[in-house]
Amino acid sequence: MDDQVSLATRAAWLSYVRRLTQGEIADRLGVSRVKVHRLISLAEELGLVSVHIAGRPAECLKLEDGLIDRHGLGFCRVVPAIDEQDQPFEALGAEGAAYLSRYLETDGAKVIGVSHGRTLAALVNRLPRIAAPETKFVSLLGSLTRKSSANPFDVVQRLADKTGGEGYFMPVPMAADSLGDKAVMLSQKSVQAVLALAHRATLCLVGIGELGPQAHMLQTGVLTRGEIDDLRAKGAVGDLVGQFLDTEGRRVASEVNDRALSVGLDDLKGRRVVAIAGGAVKADAITAALMSGMVTDLIIDESAAVAMAARRGARPPPRRQRETS
């Protein structure tokens, strides 16, 4: 019932505050027009509709609306911040699991690309068992790390286990030790087959990394502190599918980027890409990912969204909007 009340609140806010039609609300929420009508009726019955919609959810809705308008997103969820000191993995995981569940319930065979990170691991934890035997889950970047926590192989395999689908992982590290090593690894047929499948992904689930002391790639031993410092010196603020970006969403010129074993940023063009990340510490990294033009859908927490709004100030609108097919 709590999920229905939350959805009813969103529908009511979009109807009464944003003045969207029921068709527009249906597109925004990913439900039918009949469902929208019922949700608005429920909001009215529960007394949620007055002169304004009060409470923290309304604040999140305003943040969502601003992000959608600014970055041309097809979907955005801002989950309420419960404790600003707490890492929002569980709340983001729950919202991400709901998003993926809705997608898996649609008709047709699917290929879903998966990157890495603790938030995606939390998504799998919250995902109920869903029968989707025709679905293929594939790593978007190298699956081998020095530490096993939240690596792509683990996430892909658990998604396959929960859905009855098939999992495909890239049997190489996230980054090669040298460009020569990368060339050798990419020449392997097993790697080429996984990359070919990743290029067919219709949905990509991606995390967004930052470059602070708790950076996922630093904690898992993918990169050294020296490499992180070098990336920051070159203007990098975060990564998307293993590619490090500056504040404007541009790929920085770095050998670390060149050594990455992953799909390229350009490979994400024209695809449905949902980024899931949170925490005020990731505000710059999330903004960079959005500025890249590769993210179509976004799930973040309130602390990140508020920090992004505070940092934005007089920054001009994004330099480009991406087109999706």
Automatic annotation (TrEMBL):
InterPro entries referenced in this protein's UniProt entry, alphabetically: NagB/RpiA_transferase-like, SorC_transcr_regulators, Sugar-bd_dom_put, WH-like_DNA-bd_sf
Keyword Transcription regulation applies: yes
Sugar-binding domain boundaries: 57-307
GO molecular function, one term: DNA binding
Keywords associated with the record: DNA-binding, Transcription, Transcription regulation
Similarity comment: Belongs to the SorC transcriptional regulatory family.
Annotated protein name in UniProt: Sugar-binding transcriptional regulator
